[in-house]
Design a protein that fits this description.
By secondary structure, the chain is an alpha/beta fold. The chain folds into two domains: 262 residues, HUPs (Rossmann fold, 3-Layer(aba) Sandwich); 100 residues, Anticodon-binding domain of a subclass of class I aminoacyl-tRNA synthetases (Four Helix Bundle (Hemerythrin (Met), subunit A)). The protein contains 13 helices and 14 strands. The protein has a five-stranded parallel β-sheet, with helices on both faces. It has a four-stranded antiparallel β-sheet with strand order 6-7-8-9. It has a three-stranded mixed β-sheet with strand order 13-12-14, with helices on one face. Helix 10 crosses helix 12 and helix 11 packs parallel to helix 13. The longest helix is centred in the N-terminal third of the chain and has 19 residues. It is elongated and about 75 Å long. The chain binds zinc ion (ZN). Zinc ion binds next to loops.
Amino acid sequence: MRSWPAPEMPTLPVRGPAVSLHDTVSGAVVPTRPDGRARLYVCGITPYDATHIGHAATYVAFDLLNRAWRNAGHEVTYVQNVTDVDDPLLERADKVNVDWVELAERETELFRQDMSALRVLPPDHYIGAVESIPLVVELIHRLEAAGAVYRVENDLYYSVTADPTFGQVSRLDRDEMLRIYADRGGDPDREGKKDPLDCVLWRAERPGEPAWDSPLGRGRPGWHVECTAMAMEYLGTGFDVQGGGSDLVFPHHEMCAGEAQVAAPDSRFAQLYAHAGMVGYDGEKMSKSKGNLVFVSHLRNSDVDPMALRLTLLRHHYRADWEWTDQLLWDSVDTLADWRKAISLGAGAPAGPVVEAVLQALADDLDAPRATAAVDAWVAATLGTDGLADTSDAEAAVTMLRLLDAALGLAL
Ligand code: ZN
C-alpha cells in the first residue's frame, strides 16, 4: 500500500544520545539496543473513520522515537499496518451504505494527509490486511504445525495456552483479561472455544461479508494475526519496538507476541513493547462509542496550523492520559507565535545547550514536555522577557530551526 511523502528531516551538528524507552513488559525505562538498523512496528488504523486527536498523539509519539533513533545515528525500518478489512469497518460501511472498499480507501487517504500535515515520518512499509492475506495464511500453517490451531465450526482459533509465556506483555491476571477481552474485539462467550481467551485467526465467509479463497477455506484474517504476520515478514523476529496506544496492550499485543513466539519459539517477537496514553475529551476517553471525537482533518479544515496541533500533543508526555481542550490548542498557537518571533531575530541566546537538552530529553523516554520547556527557556532569554535579551549567538535561529524540525518534527 502507498505510504505518504516523507518530510525533509535536517541533520543536526551533534549526534543524540542512545535512546531509552518505557517497556510495558518490565514496567521500567530501559535502553533500546538496535543492532544496526532500528526496527519499529506501530499498529495502524482501521480506516472506518477520520483520524482523531488520540490517534494523532500515538503516531506523533512514535515519530519522536523514529527521530530520536535517527538523531542518534541509526537508520530505521518502520512498518505500519492498515486493518482494511475487519468488523468495525464492515459495520460502518453497512450503516452508511457505502462500499467497504471505498470507505477504507477514503479514510486511509485522509489519514495519510493528516500524518503529512503533522510531519510524521512515513513508514517504509505501509501494508494493508487484504494484501497481506498470503502472509497470514502462511503463518496460520506454521501455528497449525505447532499444534496451536483448532476449529470452531469453520473458523480457525489460536489457542493461547500454546504460548507458555502468555500474559507476559500485559502482565494482567486472568480475571482482568476476561473482563476487558469482550470490550476490545474478543468473543469470550462463543461456544466451542477451548479457552474463552482464544482468538480468531481465520474467519470463514459469512453471507454478505467479503472473503478470499485460501487453503484454509474462503474467509478473512483475524486482527491480531495480521500484525504478527506483517511484523515477522518485514522486520523479522526480535525487532526493537512494537508500539501502539495503551488500549492495544491486551489483547492485541499479547496475542501478537504469543502467536509469533509459538510460530518461532526460539526468539522473542519484539524486544520492547511501548504504549501511548489515551486522550480524553469532555471527561471521557476519546472514542467512537462515546462520540466525543476531535478530528485532525476538521481542525486542518478550520485553518488551524498543524504545527500548533503537533505542539499541543508534544506538551503532554506520550505515556500520560490527558484531556484535550480547545484552550490548549490556542495556547500552542500563542507559543508558536513567540517562538517564531524569537527565531526571526536571527541571533539569540546560545542554541548549543538547547540542542543538547532537547536531544537528551527525547532520548530519555521521549520526554517532549521537557524538550519544549528547554525551547521556551531559550525563547524567553532571546526575547528578553526578563528585560535582558541575549543575542550572543549569531547562528542561533538557524540552529533552532534545524533542531525543532529534526528532533520535534516542528517546521516553523
Ligand atoms: Zn497491530
